[in-house]
Amino acid sequence: MHSLVIFASGAGSNAAAIIAWFKASGKAKVSLIVCNKPGAGVLEIAAREGIPVLLTEKGSFSNPGTVARISECEPSLIVLAGYMWKVPDVLVRMYPTSIINIHPALLPAYGGKGMYGSHVHEAVVAAGEKESGITIHYVNEEYDKGSIIMQAHCPVLPGDTPADLAKRIHSLEHFYYPRTIEYLLDNMK
Ligand code: GRF
């Protein structure tokens, strides 16, 4: 069975969707949740599901124990789902083709430093875009610049608030992220 390590520091709705999907499919198990925010909603999900948690702080990744804790999970994929920090280069070098992220817009638009969470939806609505969506991509050393695996689109409707758009984007994420992960696992050498 494949092992997944999820990095998440927010409400954890994507983590929950991935956990539920793979509990049902049986193709993978979430071995560890890495989180940088004490009190984050994802920690309750981890506790409920009996998934171990690694809480990281600034500087944690210069401690070899942190990287070792992740590598001992032998992850087929490291899945970023709302982890608020840039992934340390040491991990990108160790897993150059197996760290993926989901971004709540159609990259390369509305990506880069500072473009996360509600900031993205506020910018999309303020620009009067007619369309937004999600991007699932590999992670390299630069924010939101790794190669794109898939994108899915949705409309931005007249009168949408950033919160309305966030809701629409979340449902796209919950549908496509687990399925894309499974596709990648099924096509691994
Ligand atoms: C998602 O919108 C994702 O695109 C972004 O962070 C958000 C995490 O939401 N990278 P949740 O914690 O999974 O609910």
List strands and helices in order, with pairings.
Layout: E1 2-7, H1 13-25, E2 28-35, H2 41-49, E3 53-55, H3 64-71, E4 77-80, H4 89-94, E5 99-103, H5 117-126, E6 131-138, E7 148-155, H6 162-186
Helix pairs in contact: 1-6, 5-6
The structure holds 5-O-phosphono-beta-D-ribofuranosylamine (GRF).
The site of 5-O-phosphono-beta-D-ribofuranosylamine has 14 residues, from α1 and β5.
Protein model, in words:
- The structure is a single chain.
- With 189 residues, the protein is an alpha/beta fold.
- It has a domain at 2-102 and 135-148 and 173-186: Formyl transferase, N-terminal domain (Rossmann fold).
- The chain is built from six helices and seven strands.
- A seven-stranded mixed beta sheet has the order 3-2-1-4-5-6-7, with helices on both faces.
- Strand 2 (28-35), helix 2 (41-49) and strand 3 form a beta-alpha-beta unit.
- The protein binds 5-O-phosphono-beta-D-ribofuranosylamine.
- 5-O-phosphono-beta-D-ribofuranosylamine binds next to helix 1 and strand 5.
